[in-house]
Recover the amino acids of this structure.
């Protein structure tokens, strides 16, 4: 019979392996915890490099007066200048007006289209057509609309042939008409983006809820308005935030179609930053504007999403 | 105004290809030129840089152009006076890197073949996107990445590039290689070539702004043939007849104006205000353009804008050119090449129905035809082969090639007196006679560091006035405040201004003290 060692009798012989086993488990657990981070580390590092680094650099640069190679400490002077800069406030106002109207129109049109595409079997079959504008390069879209409104006089010509106007329309000479050209171009191209999201949201909703409403005698519009739409609220909020952020950086259309004409009434904040940074090479001031806009965008997006999800969770 | 004309610039370079192709050096394309002894005879290459080989065949036929009717003076054509053997012995086998608009890269490579054959210097092109040449070129210099030897850019920016040390002075090279600077009109030599008393550029695209009229409409209003000096003697008269012409034919507006934001509006206002005697700065570099003369100029532009084509407030050179050549305006205030290109049936719908007139006057003002903006060519301070770069630019800007550019109506304009006064050249370039006679009276904005920003800031305010957002007075006062701030940032109000006013003043109005031409 094999005798147990004193260690064995005390149980110490079993304790030691348990300790090692526990250590191994902890290591394995630590490894398991760490492993996913290691996997994503390259991507995170890459993202930090291309987003965080320029962001931090912009904040740093915004504290200097940067002229060619010369950097002069400016403290908060660039931010103070911003408060008194008429052109900044005008550009901000233009962005809100043009972006706000474009976003509202895109939402309304996308919801309308989604409602029909979701219900109407014919439209449903051809909904891919609605996505075509989104597939164009933004610069190509801008050139198309520039040609239509301005250089090619296409819109003027059509309106004249229809007898609605007697002479060519100066789209670039009127504050509201020039803004309208940007709105039309943006709505034409990006309504499909919201349309896709809204259709997907409608299709993911529980059909039994709609069936129950139909059994109660509700019409499709009533179901859409009273049931589908409230249930879509978080999705709409996210879509609006995404599109809103995109619109707030509207650049290509302005650059190609109007360049801020007339009198700066179509100059958006992105074009303004570009002009300050790359036309006057005042990088410090351009960075300050960018930082302010970044903070404002984050805050607004956060508020909108939070409110939408809060209200969306208790329809 | 070829700076903004990709097609025209490309056409120019395509035409340069012809010179290259016929230079008898086609077979050399495949073999890099290295040893001077391998190079072909310069005389044979030069002989083929000729009207028959360079100018478009349809234009030669149209105007009866031939090598027997020269449009330049050989004795003043630098490529025919320079000692190419000396060039070869010194620089053959070296390389020049030339920053050029990306769209022109391929054509330029071929267009410079004769230069490569003449000099033994290899040219490498550094393409920079055309639409943002200024931004990109400055960014390259700032970042220290400028790897080119030579570059061409819009001449008003000469101070922006020269003051920070992006360019090297060319005086010594010009003297060494006998560049015929005296043949350039003073306004081009001083303003496209010199900054702060030193030579930094060789004038390239030598432009002037002019007034063009549709002959049929104008004669209908004026009741007879147009006299280029007397028919529209004043801007008040121009305002009157453009108002009349605005009503003649549906779809044809009274006048075309460059009224877009930024420098376009600035240039149009400067054009007119110069006739009222406006100067931008006093001797201490204080902005004075918001005085009576500047106001008169802007009020005149505002009056003209009532008869202007729709969309003028967004029109830059491209839009304006299209409207003029397309027959959508009855008068035009633009560069001289509007008057050359309008002659060419393949470019214009108003051939034989236009005339370029002398600059209208303003009571109490001056005769100061505006040399607002053309292009200049410079050597970068980072150049590895500055002398080779200088020689390449001298080749590109030589009078024979520039004269043939004008004959080809490609928008690249000559600034040589011997070319613009040549009767054969005047026969193929409708504005050339008026243009040449006007240049001795030309007005020009000084080339200063910060000028690009000044033109932008001022033009933005003028554009606001053009669309009725603010008054003319507010526009110029706002502009003056903005310009003062820019000048201050650039050190003009310190103890040592970056530019000596006395050195710059002679170029601002070369007509000072001269009697009127008629």
């Amino acid at each position: 019979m094999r005798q147990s060692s004193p260690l064995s009798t005390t149980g110490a012989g079993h304790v030691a392996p348990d300790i090692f086993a526990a250590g191994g488990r902890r290591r394995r657990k630590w490894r398991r915890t760490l492993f996913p981070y290691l996997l994503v580390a390259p991507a995170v590092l890459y993202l930090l490099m291309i987003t965080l680094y320029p962001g931090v650099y912009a904040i740093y640069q915004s504290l200097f007066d940067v002229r060619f190679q010369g950097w002069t400490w400016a403290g908060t002077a660039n931010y103070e200048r911003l408060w008194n800069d008429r052109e900044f406030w005008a550009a901000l106002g233009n962005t809100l007006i043009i972006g706000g109207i474009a976003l509202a129109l895109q939402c309304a049109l996308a919801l309308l289209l989604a409602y029909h595409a979701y219900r109407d079997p014919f439209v449903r079959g051809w909904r891919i057509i609605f996505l075509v504008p989104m597939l164009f390069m933004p610069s190509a879209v801008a050139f198309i609309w520039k040609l239509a409104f301005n250089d090619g006089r296409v819109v003027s010509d059509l309106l004249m042939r229809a007898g609605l106007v007697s002479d060519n329309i100066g789209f670039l000479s009127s504050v509201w008409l020039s803004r309208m050209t940007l709105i039309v171009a943006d709505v034409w191209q990006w309504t499909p983006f919201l349309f896709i999201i809204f259709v997907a949201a409608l299709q993911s909703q529980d059909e039994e809820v709609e069936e129950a409403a139909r059994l109660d005698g509700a019409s499709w519009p009533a179901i859409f308005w009273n049931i589908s739409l409230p249930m879509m609220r978080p999705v709409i909020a996210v879509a609006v935030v995404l599109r809103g952020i995109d619109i707030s950086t509207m650049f290509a259309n302005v650059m190609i179609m109007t360049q801020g004409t007339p009198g700066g009434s179509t100059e958006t904040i992105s074009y303004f930053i570009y002009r300050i940074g790359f036309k006057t090479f005042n990088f410090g001031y351009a960075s300050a504007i960018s930082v302010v806009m970044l903070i404002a965008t984050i805050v607004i997006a956060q508020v909108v999403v939070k409110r939408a999800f809060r209200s969306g969770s208790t329809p | 105004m070829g700076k903004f004309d990709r097609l025209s610039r490309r056409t120019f370079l395509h035409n340069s290809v012809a010179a290259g192709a016929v230079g008898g050096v086609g077979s050399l394309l495949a073999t890099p030129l290295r040893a001077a002894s391998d190079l072909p005879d310069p005389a044979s290459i030069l002989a083929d840089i000729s009207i028959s080989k360079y100018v478009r065949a349809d234009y030669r036929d149209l105007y009866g152009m031939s090598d027997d009717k020269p449009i330049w003076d050989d004795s003043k054509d630098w490529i025919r006076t320079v000692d190419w053997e000396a060039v070869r012995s010194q620089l053959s086998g070296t390389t020049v890197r030339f920053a050029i608009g990306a769209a022109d890269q391929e054509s330029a490579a071929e267009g410079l073949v004769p230069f490569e054959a003449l000099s033994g210097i290899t040219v490498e092109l550094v393409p920079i996107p055309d639409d943002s040449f200024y931004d990109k070129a400055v960014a390259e210099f700032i970042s220290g990445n400028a790897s080119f030897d030579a570059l061409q850019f819009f001449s008003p920016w000469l101070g922006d590039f020269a003051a920070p040390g992006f360019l090297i002075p060319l005086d010594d090279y010009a003297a060494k290689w006998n560049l015929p600077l005296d043949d350039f009109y003073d306004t081009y030599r001083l303003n496209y070539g010199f900054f702060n008393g030193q030579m930094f550029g060789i004038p390239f695209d030598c432009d002037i702004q002019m007034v063009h009229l549709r002959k049929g409409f104008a004669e209908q209003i004026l009741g007879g043939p147009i006299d280029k000096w007397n028919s529209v003697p004043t801007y008040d008269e121009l305002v009157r007849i453009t108002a009349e012409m605005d009503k003649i034919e549906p779809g044809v507006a009274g006048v075309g104006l460059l009224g877009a934001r930024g420098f376009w509006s600035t240039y149009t206002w400067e054009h007119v205000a110069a006739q009222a005697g406006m100067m931008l700065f006093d001797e201490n570099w204080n902005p004075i353009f918001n005085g009576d003369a500047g106001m008169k100029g802007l009020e005149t532009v505002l009056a003209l804008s009532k008869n202007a084509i729709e969309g003028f407030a967004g029109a830059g050179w491209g839009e304006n050119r299209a409207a003029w050549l397309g027959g959508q305006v009855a008068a035009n205030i633009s560069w001289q090449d509007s008057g050359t290109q309008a002659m060419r049936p393949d470019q214009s719908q108003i051939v034989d129905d236009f005339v370029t007139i002398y600059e209208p006057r303003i009571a109490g003002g001056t005769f100061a035809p505006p040399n607002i903006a053309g292009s200049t060519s410079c050597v970068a301070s980072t150049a590895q082969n500055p002398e080779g770069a200088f020689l390449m630019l001298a080749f590109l800007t030589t009078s024979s090639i520039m004269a043939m550019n004008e004959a080809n109506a490609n928008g690249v304009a000559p600034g040589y007196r011997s070319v613009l006064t040549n009767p054969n050249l005047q026969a193929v370039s409708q504005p050339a006679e008026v243009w040449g006679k006007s240049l001795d009276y030309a007005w020009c904005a000084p080339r200063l560091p910060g000028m690009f920003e000044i033109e932008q800031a001022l033009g933005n305010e003028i554009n606001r006035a053009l669309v009725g957002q603010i008054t003319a007075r507010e526009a110029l006062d706002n502009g003056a405040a903005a310009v003062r701030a820019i000048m201050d940032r650039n050190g003009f109000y310190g103890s040592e201004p970056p530019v000596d006013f006395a050195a710059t003043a002679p170029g601002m109005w070369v007509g000072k003290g001269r009697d009127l031409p008629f």
User: Anything to note?
Assistant: The domain at 86-313 of chain A is CATH 1.10.3720.10 (MetI-like fold). Chain A has 14 helices and two strands.
